[in-house]
Amino acid sequence: MATKGQKFRKWSFEEKLRIVQRHVLDHVSIRTLELQERVDHSMISSWIKKYADEGEDGLRSKPRKGNPYSALHTSKSLTELEELRLRVVKQDIEIARLKKGYWVEGEGADRIVITSGGVVTKLSKNSK
Predict the structure, then answer these.
(1) Would you say 34 and 40 are in contact if contact means Cβ atoms under 8 Å apart?
(2) Which of 59, 78, 113 marks a domain boundary?
(3) Distance (Å, rounded) from C-alpha 41 to C-alpha 31?
(4) How many whole angstroms separate alpha carbon 115 and alpha carbon 113?
(5) Mean pLDDT of 18-46
(6) CA 98 to CA 44: how far, in whole Å?
(7) Nearest C-alpha neighbor of 102 from the set 93, 2, 62
(8) Full residue range of the structural domain in which residue 118 is found
(9) pTM (two decimals)
């Protein structure tokens, strides 16, 4: 299990391709590759599957998905354009909540959810 702040090894495209080709072309077992290359067997298996499905392009790193506005939210100095984009995103979220029949008031630990029926619920620390 990973520990907080643990750094993980990043594998280059060339390293992944070399390991996968040793399995595919040279018929080296995944267990042997796991021991020799110090790579977890599940990672090697996923590389082999991606290679089989997508070819060499499947082994190339792809940009991670995520919230493109999260950096804007935490940034201290925003340009005017960034502030406007952040405001639009927040308003879109608020509109979606209202369509579902609830809204949120307050911030942080003091947030409460109010439904259209007037039911008030205090959000716990673990809820989003």
Answers:
(1) yes
(2) 59
(3) 7
(4) 7
(5) 93
(6) 46
(7) 93
(8) 93-128
(9) 0.50
